[in-house]
Amino acid sequence: MPNDHQRFTGINLHGSDQHGIGTWKSLCGESNEDIINVFYEITGNTPEDIELGHARWLLGASLWYGEAIKCPTLDDYAVWLREEQGEEPCLPDDPKNGLLHDWRHAKGTWLYPGNQEFWLASQRMMTWDNNKIDRYLRLEEIASHSTHVIICCSTGIRPALHETPFNAMEYPNRVREVFERVIRADKAPIAWLMSQEFFQQDLQGNHAKLVDHLKATAELVADLCHFAVPMRELGDVYGGSQMAERNALFRAIRQGAPQLPVACHERALEQIPVDDFAGVDGDVISLLQTGFDTPTGGHNRPKDEVSAGNHTYDGAAGFVSQNASRMAGWQAAGRMERHTNAVGEHSIPDVYAGQPWQPTRPLDNARRRGKILLQHGAQFDLSAGASKG
């Protein structure tokens, strides 16, 4: 992993995937063209020498004096400059209101398309410029097959998925700008409040910091999204023996956003514990992951039968159905106010040769799989944008 000094100077780094943007040579050379272009786009003026010098300092010259980089990339510098200018977000033409969609019938294509430029946009969108966000929202998989778009608010470093650092609490105006841009493109945001990497790397795995950050982020985006998820695959961080810690996350979100639905996303074939939502009133959501290689099921065929822990399921459909039935029973017993059963992940596209996630499915095939899951107890599908109709 390159350190800050390497990222800034380009020393001992080879290949475009490592150089990226943010090196002295590409940003702060003799012409300063990249900085000038960003400055002009945001302010409408050509920067003076002192403003160029300040930009170079923010982008990495501070390293020579033992100080941290304020803006690791040009996109970070653009966000900083907008905040300094007090600039109103630049929104798409012919704006719409994506929040008018009904989240109970949400359609999302979370892992699509497989195009590496845009793949897993949820973890990358905060560090994209507005032009790239707009291009993503115009993709067929998003424009035609999604009503909802997942946005991760705070991210860490996860090279395999192109995830780079962003802290929502340091750039709250940019967070709201991105959410508003998605809304104006007729999509409703779903707030993934942080990635596991952000929790482990930026918050050093500190539970108290995690709770505070979730509460503050939920408050920041409560009016700009349809529901909030603390992070992906919660069981990776807090397992079933840590119910107090798990529950504290959902209580924190509820404190930050009293009316916002909250959702739990878990690992493959892991049902959602009802105790996650203890003391959390309003709408709660099981956002299930079936596993990409789990047979679709739904036909009571022995070849589709799968086991996980002490449970046996009729494929992915049986897993979804059992979580729906169990949670309906808990709701009837008064353990929850309103529960919605949904599927978050069931299919993945072909992203690159040799990828570890198999099997892959074209979107049409994934939508057929999603439709079966909807027929077996899922209220909506964020994996392939399937609908019951």
What's the helix and strand layout?
Blueprint: H1 4-9, H2 16-19, H3 24-27, H4 33-43, H5 49-59, H6 74-85, H7 130-138, H8 140-143, E1 148-152, H9 172-184, E2 188-192, H10 196-201, H11 207-221, E3 228-229, H12 243-256, E4 262-265, E5 283-289, E6 305-308, E7 311-314, H13 315-332, E8 338-345, H14 363-375
Parallel strand pairs: 1-2, 2-3, 4-5, 5-8
Antiparallel strand pairs: 6-7
Helix pairs in contact: 4-6, 11-12, 13-14
Descriptive notes:
Mean pLDDT is 89; it is low at 1-30. A hairpin with a 2-residue loop joins strand 6 and strand 7. With 389 residues, the protein is of the alpha/beta class. 44% of the residues are buried. Helices cover 36% and strands 10% of the residues. Helix 11 runs parallel beside helix 12. It has two domains: 4-85, no CATH class; 98-375, TIM Barrel (Alpha-Beta Barrel). The radius of gyration is 22 Å and the shape is globular. It has helices spanning 4-9, 16-19, 24-27, 33-43, 49-59, 74-85, 130-138, 140-143, 172-184, 196-201, 207-221, 243-256, 315-332, 363-375, and strands at 148-152, 188-192, 228-229, 262-265, 283-289, 305-308, 311-314, 338-345. The strands form three sheets. A three-stranded parallel beta sheet has the order 1-2-3. Strands 4-5-8 form a three-stranded parallel beta sheet.
How do you describe this structure in short?
The protein is an alpha/beta fold and 389 residues long.
So how many helices? 14
Which spans have pLDDT < 50 for at least 5 consecutive residues? 1-30
- Major sheet: size, sense and barrel closure? 3 strands, parallel
**CATH architecture field of the largest domain:** Alpha-Beta Barrel
Determine and state the CATH class of the largest domain. Alpha Beta
Content-based structural category: alpha/beta
What is the helix fraction of residues, given as a range?
25-40%
- Largest beta sheet: what is the strand line-up? 1-2-3
Q: Give the helices and strands as they follow along the chain.
A: HHHHHHHHEHEHHEHEEEEHEH
Number of domains: 2
CATH topology of the largest domain: TIM Barrel
Distance between the termini: 48 Å
Shape: globular
- Work out the number of β strands: 8
Overall average residue pLDDT: 89
The fraction of residues assigned to DSSP E strands is 5-15%
Rg measurement, Å: 22 Å
